[in-house]
Automatic annotation (TrEMBL):
It comes from the Eukaryota. It holds the Pfam family VDE. This is Violaxanthin de-epoxidase. One of its GO terms (molecular function) is violaxanthin de-epoxidase activity. The lineage of its organism: Eukaryota, Viridiplantae, Streptophyta, Embryophyta, Tracheophyta. PANTHER family: OS01G0716400 PROTEIN (PTHR33970:SF2), VIOLAXANTHIN DE-EPOXIDASE, CHLOROPLASTIC-RELATED (PTHR33970). One of its GO terms (biological process) is xanthophyll cycle. It comes from Vigna unguiculata. InterPro entries: Calycin, VDE, VDE_dom.
Amino acid sequence: MSLNLQLQYVETFGFKFLHNSLSVNAFTFPFHLHTLCFLPFPSLPRTHTHPRFRPRTTVFSAVTAEQPPAPPVRMVAVAGHGAASPLKSASWEEVMLHTVTACCFKICWIARSFCLQLERIQIIDRNLSYFGVMFLIIRVAKRLKWVDEGYELLVFTDECIVSGGEMSTRLQKELRDADILMIIAVTNKESVEWINNNGKTIENVICLESSSDLKNRLGGYDVPSGVRGRIFGSFFGTSQSGKAKESYEVVQTVSEAWDRHNSDDIRFCLLVIINAYIRPVPVLNNLRAKGFSTLNCMLRNCGRQVLNCLLDPNCRKALECLNRCSPVDQVCNYRCIASYESANLEAFSLCVLQKNNCLELEAEVPEKPYVPPMMKFRGQNLSYEVAEDLFVGWLGSLQWSWRVVAGQNPAYDQFPCQYQLFYRGKAKGSFWYEPVFQVKTLEGEMVWRRRKYRVRRGKVPGTFYFSVLDNGVVSKEFWTIVDVAENLSWGLFHYHGAARVAGQSYTGAVLVSPDGAFPTDRERTQVVAALDKCEIKEWELYNVDNCSCIDPPLGIPEGSSLHTVVQIEDPKQMSV
């Protein structure tokens, strides 16, 4: 590569590689449309150490050395009572309870004693008076515990502040030990004054969509209130101090994630603050590029691919576009890839990421949440053959297996006209999945895209392993058939996945039907029950635009086969 081209490359991308960098949302990377976020992004500040987390002296023996476990990260969220969120008008209380939790406990009065129910029980107050208390829900941060068992979060509403009493005392007690306080949609004057008075000692306080009289704080430093819809506005005036700059980067990252208003990004906001001010979050630290070593690896091993990409207008536009995207805006990143897909871009990412792992990233397929597959179909135990037939779905009667109605992953489900094609291949035992979908490019053009996944059976009928080479990067996924209606009027499929060399892991689910329309009201109870198995709420789903799906590039390879067991009726005769 010529010196000019090398300098041009460094000028275009160099500064991105000189920093430790946070990549796209590490928890919800879309399973069959994953963005190639191989370019590092502006770094988060280096991790600060909270006094409670400073290293302790460890005694080493000749045989073994043990490091004491880190103390838990304690977080408290206070939501405005009854305040509506942008998530299909669900209350912020409900959003926070679900976003960070999935366990609750009910306290029932039976013979003047409490009956504690549900699988995981954390008693908030053993001395709660049973008089007037017949039903209480306090949720524990289970979704955060999917990341680290040491994360503890309690959710309150400001109703307990206004009403006073023992719950107000309990909140006051929890705030004394809190590492992070998150305040959402609190505007009541009495609540604002109470929080300001009782939250003075908390080093990290973020106020979201709340009164401007509430004080934001990061790392023990006050931050001015926000403007223009952001969490915080201009930060520390014209201050150029190192801590101000570092905190500003956290503010920007958290602000942009929060503005997307989805449950995974709300959790991401908390993880960013934990990583920056309390202790390292491994799933974020593993997404950091390695500075000059990354650039050296690219130039040493992939010089020809880098040169070809720079000389290809579409490939170069794709990389420049990715650099302009927010580090946690998956939709922006994927639109860059979809807008400028090319053979040179695929060769670039195949060499830089897949073959040489120049960013030295790692990601594993998540194990949580555990989602059980359906056990029976039409009264019979689910077999591998029947499960595959359920994936094949309507293909044969229609030109596709299923159409996606809605999904939980915010990146994937922004795209319209999603068709699923499942079929058996020519080779014995082979099974394939090909999603077909539309993308609106940055030039405003609607284009069709298609991918091809190899599918293998899992250990249990109804579970499968998927793998795909998408724009040069391999993604591996674990799919579960959660439920399918007996007449195939709808289905729900859950997935976990990871693009290892891109440092991305993700989860989600898709609701499907033969025509892309929502199941009927009569089927809603069963659909909600299936979503509950995935720990997903209805308001988390993103609706797919299936209105203008003209000439999709469908069809399957000649010699493929479809159903072996399940009989599919004429869709025109289908009744619910």
